[in-house]
Amino acid sequence: MESRSEERLEALVADCLEALDGDDTRTLDQVIEYLTDKEPALRDPLRKRLDRLRDLGLLGDEDKSATQPVIEGYQLRSCLGSGGMGEVWLATQVEPVHRAVAVKVIRRDRRNERVVQRFLSERQALAKMSHPGIAQVYDAGETKTGEPYFAMEFVDGRPIDEVHRSNELGLDTTLELMAKVCDAVQHAHDRGVLHRDLKPQNILVTEIDGELQPKVIDFGLAKGLEESISGGDVETLEGQVLGTPQYMAPEQADSSVDEVDVRVDVYGIGAVLFEMVTGSLPIDIPNATLLEVVQAIRSMERPALSTRLRERASSDDNDDTRILSRSLASRCRGDLDRILKRALQIDPTLRYGSVTALGTDLRAFLQHRPISATPPTTIYRLRKFAKRRRGLFLTAVAVLLTALTGLGFALHYEVQARRSLSWFDKLAEREEVARLIGRVDSLGPLGPSGLSDLESWLLDAEVTLTSRDAAADFLGETRRRAANPEAQDVVDRGYDRGRYAVLDESLTLLLDDLDTLHESRSEVERWTRFARSVPAVNDPTLRARWDEALESIADRERCPLYEGLRLKPQSGLIPLRQDPDSGLWEFALYWPDGESGSMDIPSVGANGFLEVTESTAPVVVLIPGGSFFMGSEVRPEAEFFDEFASNDEDPRHPITLAPFFIGKYELTQAQWVGMTTKVTSQITFDFNERNPGARLTDVIDGRHPVENLSWEESRTWLRRLGLDLPTEAQWEYAARAKTTTPWWCGADRSSVVEPLAANLADERAVAQQYYTQAEPGLEDGYLFHGPVDLGAPNPFGLHGTIGNVWEWVRDRYHFYDKVTAAPDTGLRKKADEESNGDIPRVVRGGGFDAPATKARHTQRLAKGQTDRSGGIGLRLCRAISVTED
Length: 885
Known about the structure:
It is a single chain. By secondary structure, the chain is of the alpha+beta class. Helix content is 38%, strand content 12%. The strands form six sheets. A five-stranded antiparallel β-sheet has the order 1-2-3-5-4. The protein has a five-stranded antiparallel β-sheet with strand order 11-12-13-16-21. α1 (4-21) packs across α2 (28-35), α14 packs antiparallel against α16 and α15 (390-405) packs across α16.
C-alpha cells in the first residue's frame, strides 16, 4: 500500500500539472515553492518527480493530437502510449481524490469481444494485487462513449534496461532490482495471475524515498493459473503466439502447447537479466524473421553469461570496455552462470519452480551464500564462507600464526594469509574437476530425459575450465620461487619451503585434470547434440507410427503372442513393422552416428527382410512375456537330458519374464563406432594390414559384429542410451523363442547347417588351421565372424543367436541352485554381492570359433568382466514401460 507521503506527493504532482496547463504565469520552481511552502520535506521529491515528467515530454499542454476519451472525474492530458489493445493516458483524477494517474482505455478502432475480454482480464488481474512492485489500480468504469477503462498508479519511471545503461548500475544493484522484480511477480502468482510478457518495457524503475523501485506494468497478456481471472479465462486462438518473442519461454512460443505455468515468468525474468548484464539477448539473431526467432527459442542452446561477456570483450575495440567485460565475466563465472542457465532452460521442468526460488538464489549470490543451482559440496560451502567472512578468516589465520611463531612473524604471515585465500580457491578446484570427470560415466540416457544432466554437466565444465589459464599462471608464479624451475621433478626444483613444493605438485595435477576435463567436454558436447535430436515420446512426427503399433500390439487377434499388452510410446524408439514371419513388432533405435547426428532407419528389402547396412541403426524386437524352462538336464534318465550339457547348466528350472526389448541382431562395428567414435574390434577391414602374413580373403565391413569389448565397457556405453545387456534368462528365452530343443532349429546339431542358422567353426577354417574342431558339413562363408544378419532368423526373428560372436549377458556367473532368479527379469544377484574387481560374468551363444555343441542355447562360459576377446560381442536389451490399466 502507498504511504501517506506518497499519496500527498501524487496530489502535489496533479496540482503542478493543473497550474502549468492553466493561465498561471509562474515558473515551475515558483509553483513548487508555493505548493510545498508548508511541506518543505516534499520539495525535493516533487522536483525530481516533475523533472522526470519533463524528461518524458509530459509537461506542458494537453495532447491534442489524439481524440481524448471523456471520463467523468478525470482530466486526460497526454497520451503516454498506444498498443494493439488500448491507449494509456496521463491524467489528473479530480474526484474523489486529487492525484496524477495513468488511465488505460480500449482503442475504439480495435474494440471487439476478444479485446474487451482481455482488457477486463487485465483490469481484474491488477485489481487483485497490492504490492510496491506492481502498479496499483485505483478505479475502473466506462468512458462517455462506453469503452472500458481503468485508472492506475502513474509510474513516472523508465524501462529497467534504460536505467541500467544511463545510470551505469553495477552488477550488485542490477541483481537487487531483479530480485525485487521476482518479489512482485511472485505476488501476482500468489493471486493466481501469470504475466506472460515480462520485458524491459514492462518493468519501469522509479525512485521512492531515495531507493530504486521496479514496478511491473502491463498485464495485458495475464492468464489465470487455477481459475479464470474474470469468470472465464480468455481463449487463445489456435496457432497464436502471445508475448514478445525475444523474452518468451519456449513452451509459450509453441502454439501447440495449451498450458503454461509460473515458469514462463521465470524465463522472462531470466531473459531480461541476461540482457541487462551482457547487453544482448540470450537468443540474439540479427535480422531474423519472427518465425526464425520463435524456432530458435524452441531449440537453440542459451550461452552462459560469462561466455557472452567474453565474446563481447574479444570483439570490442575499446580497451576500457574490453577490460570491464572481462572483469564482469570473471564475476559472473560460476554461480551466476548457473542461476541464469537454470532460469533459461528450454525444458520448463528444469527451470526454477518459482520466481521466489530465482530471487532467493540472486540474493544468495549477493551475500556469498550457497545457491540451490550448485551442488552443495563441502569445498563449495567452505569457499562461500571464506568470501562471506573474509575478515574473520584472515584474523583466525593471524591468531593461529601468532600462537605458532610469535607476534613478530604474525603480521608478516597475515599478509601471506591473504594470498592463501587464492591458493585455497585454486587447490579446491581439484575436487570440482575430479567430481566432474567422475560424473561422465553416469551421464545419460542420451535423450530428452537425460538432456538436463548433460547440459548441467557442460555448464559446470565450462565454468571450471575457464580457470585453466589462471591456474597455469599461478603455477608459473610458484615455480619462479624455485632454485631450478626448469627441472622435471618437483624435488629437483629446489624449493626453500615445503609448502611451495606441495603447491607446485597440486597445481600440476590440477592442470592435468583440466586437460582431461577438456577432452571429456568435447565428448559430452557430442552426446548432448545427439540427445537434443531425439524426439520426445509425444513428438507429432511419430504419432501415426506409434498409434498403429500400440493398437496392433494390444489387439489379441492381430498379435496373439502379446496377449493384449498395453504399451505406451517409448522414448528413443521408432516403430518399424510387425514381422510377417514372427508376428512380433520391431523398432529402430535412435542411434548416434559420430558427429553427423543419427544413423538411418532400416528399410525392408525385396526379400521381405530388413536391410542391414553400415549406416543403419540397431533394431530391437518386442519380446512377449512368458514362462519357460531354463537350463539343461545332465541326468540321463531325465526327459530333457542333453549329452553335451555341463553341470553349471543344471538344474532345468522354470522362469517367468515380463515383456522386454532385445536386439534383433548383434551390435555392429559401425553402430559401435557411431556411439563411441572408437574402433575396438580386432577383426576389421584392415585385418591383413595389422597382421603381417595374414591372408584373410573375407570382406570385413561395418555390418560385422563389434567385438573385443569388456563387460564393463559394454554396459557403460549401453546405459548412456538407456539400454543394458540382457540377463541370462532374457537371453536364453529370446534365443529359444519358445522351443525346447538345444538349438531353436532342432534337436540335432545338423539342424544348424541347412538352412544355414549359424556361423560356427566350419571345415574351411579347420583346413586353414585356424581351429582344430569343425562343425561337420557346415560352410558359412567366413573364417571369422560374418554380417550380423547372416543365416536364418529364429521364430522370434532374431539373428545370430547361434555362433558368430559370444555375447555378454548382465548376470554374474552363479550356479542356478545357489541364487534365485529375480521376478520379471530373471537376474541372478546376491543381496550383498560386490561389483568391483574382475568379477566372473557370463557369455552366451557360442562363436565363430566353436562347434555347434558349444553353441547350444543353454551353453554358459565364464569370463572376467574386464576380459576382452576378438570373439566376444554383445546384443543390447531394453526394459519397457507399460500403462497402468
